[in-house]
Amino acid sequence: MYILAAVPAARAAGGTTRTAFIMKIAILGGGHGCYAAAADLSEQGHEVRLWRRDAPALQPVIDRGSIVLKDGDGTREVPIARATGEIGEALAGAQLILIPSPAIAQADIARRMAPHLVEGQVVFLSPGTFGSYVMARAVREAGSRADVAWAETGTLPYLARKHGDREVNVTIRAVRLPTGVYPERQAAHALAVIRRAYPSVHGCGDGLSGALMNAGPIIHPPLIVMNAAPLQHFDRWDIHNEGTQPAVRAVTDRLDGERIAVREALGYGAPHYPLADHYNNDRWMYGDAHKKLVKSGDWREHIDLHTHRYVTEDSELGLAFLASAARYAGVDAPLAHGLLAVVGGFLGRDLRQGPRSFEALGLAGLDRQALKQRLQDGE
Asked: Rounded to two decimals, what is the model's pTM?
């Protein structure tokens, strides 16, 4: 369906020079990760089309035709093949569709993209919060019958922050991206396509396994809950610096232990990428990144406890998903449920039956074999 040509590229994810295969890539969204991906993949030589729902906010990129990329190699203008407010234009002919947008945007994006999807395309969510399953269902409900592969990984390929309306600073690139695919029968095709953009991707099974690699619901809820007072007191607060103290780390490690126990109970093997490696060594998804993250200063920011994606995505959706997976697997998960209760307490609602829970998705009533079959074949 697509003609791929080998060309030299300046950089791969992780900072190494490699030979790339030129692809048409659609990037959907306007956040930090979206702009980082658009610049990085364009610099590799791919034909990138960037779309976002807020077309006026995209206008500076449309007008200049480029994004300013900052990283350890300096600052430079990176031309983008196309920035557009028309999603159909972005998706036309794209072999890889990258959606680094928050999970709270997935349902709307799925409805918008449904009429334009074609067989053979690969959608890559980074990360997904089980969006591989949720978006596939939403697209089918919108009338699409295209046989599309949906993949999700454990984190963004970049630690990045936008510094302006068309400028993005990349602090570090991921060196390991465990990725699950829904339906899993599409895994070989999906992983082969994604690796042409991100060689650091490796398979970890089905979409549920990929969702249970998501670091956001592990690292962010404890930081939000245990730093709630300074977050509301100070205009800016770095939860990854002053906010990451031994008591917080202890809670995070135990919450991550619950995630790993769920993975094991559902039959998923190592590597599980324990979050402790992010702080202690270079074996995590970003390698040795925590000190660079803090040094950048980009994460000293204002965090609203009602609207920030650490709450709306990683707690309301991601942590609720993990807690429901623990219930399904029969794993005791007091920290997942306790942190979820506290977040629900300051939000003023019960988060246990959220839209990403097994119960809400109609999965709680499936036995293990039926769940495995659905993840393998799709609905």
From this structure: 0.93
